[in-house]
Amino acid sequence: MLQISQRGLAMPPSPIRKLVPFAEAAKKKGIRVYHLNIGQPDIETPKAMLDAVRNADFKVLEYSHSAGNESYRRKLTEYYEKVGIHVNHNQIIVTTGGSEAIQFGFMACLDPGDEVIIPEPFYANYNGFAVAAGVVVKPITSYIENGFALPPIEEFEKAITPRTKAIVICNPNNPTGYLYSREEMEVLKQIILKHQLFLFADEAYREFCYTGEHFSAMQLEGVDDHVVLMDTISKRYSACGARIGALVTRNKSLLDAVMKFAQARLSPPGFAQIAAEAAVDLPDTYFDATKAEYLLRRDTLVNRLNAMEGVFCPNPGGAFYAIARLPIDDADKFCQWLLEDFSYKDQTVMLAPATGFYGTAGLGKNEVRLAYVLNVESINAAMDCLEQALFTYANEINVSVSDTKHV
Amino acid sequence: MLQISQRGLAMPPSPIRKLVPFAEAAKKKGIRVYHLNIGQPDIETPKAMLDAVRNADFKVLEYSHSAGNESYRRKLTEYYEKVGIHVNHNQIIVTTGGSEAIQFGFMACLDPGDEVIIPEPFYANYNGFAVAAGVVVKPITSYIENGFALPPIEEFEKAITPRTKAIVICNPNNPTGYLYSREEMEVLKQIILKHQLFLFADEAYREFCYTGEHFSAMQLEGVDDHVVLMDTISKRYSACGARIGALVTRNKSLLDAVMKFAQARLSPPGFAQIAAEAAVDLPDTYFDATKAEYLLRRDTLVNRLNAMEGVFCPNPGGAFYAIARLPIDDADKFCQWLLEDFSYKDQTVMLAPATGFYGTAGLGKNEVRLAYVLNVESINAAMDCLEQALFTYANEINVSVSDTKHV
After folding, report:
1. Transmembrane segments in this chain: where (chains A, B) (predicted)?
2. Which long-range contacts (CB under 8 A, 24 or more apart) does B334-338 make?
3. Alpha helices in A180-330 (DSSP H)
4. CATH 3.40.640.10 region(s) of chain B?
5. For the segment A17-67, what is each residue's pLDDT rounded down to a tens digit?
6. Class for the domain spanning A6-44+286-401
7. What angle do CA A271, A274, A275 make, to 5 degrees?
């Protein structure tokens, strides 16, 4: 029998995108949908990046170096220097989005059956990359009550087995928005040193920290061989479609191994490397405006959420996500209901059920992730919808569900 | 001990790129190196493609659909229709280069330990993608004497085991330039039907056929669920750096599985999809000039090679590669020597040792692959170098090697 692979069957669908058909159906009914479900910012991509591509003068769109154009890698070292990360251009391998950096890291550091520890809730696609690489994700739970802070060291110790090879830390965090402190990073350093683990640091949202300075895993001392930075320009410059990221490490054997994976796929995208190189020359003030805008959005969103009855949303320290606990029975059902059966003034809101971000089954059932990637006016309109929806849901749906249970 | 993965160690380096440091050293000495080692054409990327990107009007470079922009996929069906492949846009998943299409196919159709049969010599990166996916490549040998025609059906039967899940066919072939006939494709159809295998068809060079019409695996009847087309615009439009390919199949379960891998990495490159969409509207005459140019180059190269003493090069029916047998002892050594120790009028030529294209150790030791991606003048200059080099090598190197053996 002709069959697809077990791996293909086991591959998880995107929990963020699975409600898309319901959103499309809502739009066809004339309902405006506010997309707080996905990290696609409405911030304009810097014109200097687009202009660099428009004005690029070449006749043949050739393969670049498999590690990315040397000129771009050299330029990137200037960017990293500015954020306190000291690396040279040979310690950078340009990837096709942050996604490929994660894939390369998993492939080059872990073998099938090896385990990677990730605080949950976590970026759902780590699951997909783990399945592709045959790697086992071991979640350790962080909790909404303390804003999803790093779980205590004992929880890591309990999860570690002889197959454990790495820890993934996303800082600031997607989906929780939690900003790990320097102290928490030092705790991770002790763990990786004691157990000889890799530390995969996904710092896609480095630029967006509101409650403190970002402390990069690359700034930890004495763990040069352990730390692998998985980076991307997607969020930094609102250039998600560019598909330009980077794997950065000072571990020479790892760089050699990753380079072989990079050579196999020939090169990262050409046009976008031009845009990415131009981005490094944006004025230092560029991030000020973006960050101020996200801060305003965060405050609007979090205040509105916490003002709703029965809703709790910890104030995120970074990124542009928040996880809120809602007075609902089932986040998947609720998010689908918002699109399928609800509207307020011909509008509704699309959220990501938090269940998709937990590795442990059953967690996150009354939580949703909200991406504050829309302007304040839209966020307020979306919150008006959510407030009304929770009221309707409590009176019509939750009640009838409870009634049914008692029949 | 902190160690990279066994997979990372097992990953093969690119045999095409491993001589690059020697080429760079030669250039530093002031020697001009003719690059016949790599399939990077000097043909200009169509201006209409570059202009489409230059003139694209958008403010935010957003993620595209994970399967690629719908407008591009719809446009691509027009292209496929023209070349006799009838598919709809939902049967196309746009990938990051043909490389990702191959990776997706391996991942979604084969599990670790499964086997894939590939006629050798074959495109070396299949090895890399196989290692990444934990898949075992079973080579069956094709021979220079008959121009690398499809091995007889018995050879396939001998190689098939219960773990065999797929056959890869690259048509026209890289590295041999062999153009598989419709009859040969029908033979493959019988094998995949009898043994319920997938047929992965890498048709990157479809446009460049000189001795007959291209017959696509997608044109085979009654094997819709078996055939997976792995395509790319890299060579078709001389746009290798775009990193736009496609996985095309009529197998619905496979499309669903591949879509999950596509969602995990979010989307293919944005700028380049705009260029690729514009390419479909190039006039039908576009390929005439390119094909005529490649034909002239092929004839120049093959005639020059066969005029050299002790050299045999079968006339390739397609693509822009040829494999030649040279009067040498060790192709790897010879190709390195060309860069390290030889020059003729301050020029030399870079070739790819054929050993890297064979799965069976020891084969291809007196063969090299030549990519006729440079203009006729450069090809002639490169052939002048090679002719002189073979003469020098025979008199100085081979002889001394033989002498040493007799000591």
Report:
1. none
2. B334/B368, B334/B393, B335/B19, B335/B37, B335/B368, B336/B19, B336/B22, B337/B393, B337/B397, B338/B385, B338/B386, B338/B389
3. 182-195, 252-264, 270-279, 286-306
4. 47-279
5. 779 899 999 999 999 999 999 988 999 999 999 999 999 999 999 999 999
6. alpha beta
7. 95
In the structure encoding, which two tokens stand for residue B9, read together? 């160690």
Contact A106, A202 (CB under 8 A): no
Task: Enumerate the CATH 3.90.1150.10 domain ranges in chain A, comma separated.
Answer: 6-44+286-401
Residue of B nearest to A223 (CA): B2
DSSP designation for A219: G
Closest approach of chain A CAs to the CA of B203, in angstroms? 17
Q: What angle do CA A207, A209, A210 make, to 5 degrees?
A: 140
One CATH from 3.90.1150.10, 3.90.1010.10, 3.30.870.10, 2.140.10.10 for B6-44+286-397: 3.90.1150.10
CATH class assigned to A47-279: alpha beta
- Considering chain B, tell me which residue range(s) the CATH 3.90.1150.10 domain(s) occupy: 6-44+286-397
Question: What pLDDT, on the 0 to 100 scale, is given for residue A174?
Answer: 97
Query: Minimal Cα–Cα distance from B196 to chain A, Å?
Result: 5
Residues 24-43 of A with CB under 8 A from B: 40-43
Q: Which of A266, A267, A274, A293 to mutate to test the interface with B (most CBs of B within 10 A)?
A: A266
Partner B, chain A 181-220, Cβ-Cβ below 8 Å: 196-198
Q: Are A84 and A219 in contact (CB under 8 A)?
A: yes
Mutate to test the interface with B, among A20, A60, A115 (most CBs of B within 10 A): A60
* Tens of pLDDT, residues B348-361: 999 999 999 999 99
Express each pLDDT in B76-120 by its tens digit.
999 999 999 999 999 999 999 999 999 999 999 999 999 999 999
pLDDT tens profile A217-248: 999 999 999 999 999 999 999 999 999 999 99
Answer whether B266's CB lies under 8 Å from A39's CB. Answer: no
DSSP for A224-246 reads TTTEEEEEESTTTTT-GGG--EE
pLDDT of residue A89 exceeding 80: yes
Q: Specify the amino acid at residue A397.
A: I
Is residue A407 predicted with pLDDT exceeding 60?
Answer: no
d(CA A105, nearest CA chain B) in Å: 10
User: Which of chain B's residues have a Cβ under 8 Å away from the Cβ of A112?
Assistant: 7, 112, 134
Closest CA to A136 of A104, A154, A156, A160: A160
Instruction: Determine the Cα–Cα distance for residues A363 and B65; give it in Å rounded to an integer.
Output: 29
**CA-to-CA distance for B402 and B407, rounded, in angstroms?**
9
Other CB atoms closer than 10 Å to residue A309's CB: what's the count?
A: 9
Largest pairwise CA distance in chain A = 74
Q: Contact at 8 Å (CB) between B83 and B216?
A: yes
